[in-house]
Amino acid sequence: MAAIRNEDSLIRSIELRFGAKRGRQLPLGVGDDAALFSPSRGHQTILTCDWFLEGTHFLPDLHPPDSVGWKCLARATSDIAAMGGTPKCFLLSLALPDTHTGKWLNEFLGGLRRAARRLGCDLAGGDTTKQKDTQISVTVIGEVRTGQSVLRSGARPGDLFYVSGRLGEAELGLRMLRRGRKPTRSRDPFLRKHLYPEPRLALGRWLAENKLATAMMDLSDGLSSDLPRVCSASRAGALVEVENLPLATVRSARDGKKIDLQQLALHGGEDYELLFTVPRGKAGRIPRSFRGVRLTRIGEVTPTRSVRLLDRSGREAELSPAGWDPFHN
Amino acid sequence: MAAIRNEDSLIRSIELRFGAKRGRQLPLGVGDDAALFSPSRGHQTILTCDWFLEGTHFLPDLHPPDSVGWKCLARATSDIAAMGGTPKCFLLSLALPDTHTGKWLNEFLGGLRRAARRLGCDLAGGDTTKQKDTQISVTVIGEVRTGQSVLRSGARPGDLFYVSGRLGEAELGLRMLRRGRKPTRSRDPFLRKHLYPEPRLALGRWLAENKLATAMMDLSDGLSSDLPRVCSASRAGALVEVENLPLATVRSARDGKKIDLQQLALHGGEDYELLFTVPRGKAGRIPRSFRGVRLTRIGEVTPTRSVRLLDRSGREAELSPAGWDPFHN
Predict the structure, then answer these.
(1) Which of A66, A263, B48, B52 is deepest in the core (most CB within 10 A)?
(2) Which residue from A129, A146, A326 is facing B326, i.e. has the nearest CB?
(3) ipTM
């Protein structure tokens, strides 16, 4: 792809890369003042946006542009999964330095397009401008049948807390990357989870359609930061059993000793797994795994507003948020 | 407002400022993974997003936070006006330095809330993070009756080009600001137009509902940059009559001599007026002004792809884009 001369040619490059094919629900995409979207009858529209900023959410020396493209869309789409919805299209706000309009942009758009196809989410429009650092904001538009969305506020005392997948894996991947592991074509699952997260769309939809989850959110900042958000929205508390946390499985015992896997599971960010609550009476309908993704009961919703941790010896302690917060980093 | 300790308290501050009042179409706003929006039957959803970046779209020493709040929403909403639609709600992506979470944020939210009320556009959600410079991306969600939207691509040779308001006024306001004019409580119309632009929502809707406009866009970068975009989308050209351009009216003849008002009208940015085309047979239905906003015929759509300027002496010349382009600033 040639270097970009002006904003119009940057927009044309993006349009070219994504093709002019317009879905039934997207009669008008990139290139007009705004995009048009035809909502489905009997559905509500889900709206979410996420920052992806150089220096804050990715590091220019560490993260390949292909991963930046994939991840900026995947993490915003994870919010749609957490509502039990289906992604439909997205808007891309892209601010780039002049140096990034050639090879970098090309690889970035490659990763973005792969994610868009994988997630079934078409590019609808956006805004581009020049900036010293690379800055991205992605808005994803999804849909959910009216009345079927799963909010953070629906957990009731006695409901059981579940998580999908294993916790702390993405943080492990980030550590590997920081230690110098080459990100290109790595088959390492931790590295892949950090660089190319997969929002749990099918699981979120299944839980919503079958009315199994009373509350749900995606784990972006880490369990210790995100779980209190479900509790706060539901005006309830939680008791988490340390023993049940699905820890990352490291290859050798030596690796496991060097790393506190429990701390990683509690505080590690960016797993983009789902945290959800299920009424006790429906717990039997939650399988051990859903389409290859492990589902684990990690505790229960309590009537008191505190979030507590039950350790192996039966002792309880307060769980303080120690996940990722941009205002503390 | 107290300084912000973390992301959750920043979100709560914003929510508090905007109130928990939720409209019929916005059953779930700020505070969950995503927002829910109930689309109207028989309507399409309009989606648009706009950057508003420190150093690019506003200057920290020049622009009061109140204006930053108003303008970031107003300019994104102007795209909804240009489609003939009605704004419904918006998402706010806000990245702030620590120094801006107190007084600056308070005044910013004040301007944003005034704009939200004026434009009938509720805060639905967003994302916040910390950053060295203040960076804003606003996504506005609007609606238009299916089939009634006005695109850039509908202009046909022989149609007449119109603009609303007077051109170059916002650029004049920016020049006054740069010369040291105090922005606070100024009643100067040029300064107001630069700091607190008013998207032409009623006009856009009226043109769309009455099927008077064949193409439409809002003037953000300047006529010489934006008009070729309508031509390009419509696969047509334009002949603009210099004599008919609605120039800014300056108070004294001396002021007028110092400033080339014609150049301002052609290339000045950020007027957020509407540029639209009307079939010749419907020109009689376009009034001289609409709700106090002047409407002016400035030229016509031509079959050749060139954009030309007809001067007072009858000479024609190519009009080259010389408005605002972030990749040339």
Answers:
(1) B48
(2) A129
(3) 0.91
